[in-house]
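User: I'm preparing a small set of examples for a lab meeting where we compare how different chains pack in three dimensions. I only have the primary sequence for this one, and I'd like the structure in token form so I can line it up with the others. Please keep the answer compact; I'll paste it straight into my notes.
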Amino acid sequence: MVFQCGHLTCCKCRFCFSYQDYNKSQQQPKWVMCPTCRQRTDYGNIAYVDDRQEKSSGSDNSPTSQDCEKGEASLAVQGSYGTKLEAVTRRVLWIKFSEPDSKVLVFSSWNDVLDVLEHAFKANGITYIRMKGGRKSHAAISEFRGQNKKNQESTDEQQEPKSIQVLLLLIQHGANGLNLLEAQHVVLVEPLLNPAAEAQAISRVHRIGQEKRTLVHRFIVKNTVEESIHKLNRSRNTTTTSFISGNTKNQDQPILTLKDVECLFASSTPAAEDSEKKTEEEKEASESTSSLRQLPPAVAAAIAAERRLMQNRLPASSPAL
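Assistant: Understood. Below is the structure token output for the 321-residue chain.
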């Protein structure tokens, strides 16, 4: 459904609002208000677009998800870089094979991860460039967009310049303020605690002016803390004030309560089943020590101090007369 102002909306959603207006006024409305700009459009001036023919014509030749999984699994990665980074490299190789003209944004929270990915991409023949911030970031983005091709052709006419297919970015530097409509794929190497940062990273590609289909690839290791982070991220309500205010340096860092930290690092190993035979005191002691060992030193010290404070607040037993 396209209005006179140029905005469009889903027909089903628009008809639901029209039905509600009809029940309130008991009269058939003669115009519809655009939900984006609030401009009125007569019913006779509304255009309808039906894309069922395009979907049906492309469904015969489009590969199924099972075919894509089999094709991706058949690709061999040169070198050994760990399970996750090999999976990321294999996915980029599959995108390069299935969509040669597509570009990919790879986001990570760690410089070390991007260093390893650079070696993996170089060994597997994937053209990439890394944005490290500062003045060189503009040159990296221009090269990723292909704006330096003319200069390369003038300096070296014999060698054809290779188009950059992958842009490596830190989530802290590249998730805000960039317009990268040239890319169609976003790869998130790790799950993020901040849903707003994840949305900003995806918005570098999925924004106004994008004419192609965009895809987001998340990589989460099963039965690890990454799965807990992903679940906590989904359970957070983005409408609530869950971000630190006051300090401008930490505005994008989410507030984590002690309960959130314990949920993130809760152990679900088979050894926990054997501990059921122990007494309640031994069970609590073993769970507390095992959970603290998995935490960073600063977080473990904070949790231990909180537990000691709670124990000191318990009423002391009365002395025997």
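A couple of notes for your slides: The two ends are 85 Å apart (CA to CA). Residues 11-51 form one domain.

User: Perfect, thanks.
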